[in-house]
Amino acid sequence: MLRHEFQPGKLVTGAVLILAGVLYAGDAGDAWETPWFVAIPLVTGGLCLAGAVAFVTGRVRRRRGAGRTTDGPGPDLAS
Fold this sequence. Notes:
The protein is mainly alpha-helical. The protein is built from 2 helices and no strands. Helix 1 (8-28) runs antiparallel to helix 2 (39-64). The longest helix has 26 residues, at 39-64. This is Integral membrane protein.
């Protein structure tokens, strides 16, 4: 059983931000030279791509219907 639903937009966002972090960590460790202006298009483009992926995912889920249904009762809110 899944604990939460899969969200591809957040996966893309995380991957892009990790890539930006790795690029600058390599620059800080003198493994390679990363120009200062690389972060702006990388992060902005990654966030735009993540937004597009999240939009498409939402549209696909709405088109398929309500999604998964639970077999058991919901959470007990009375206690």
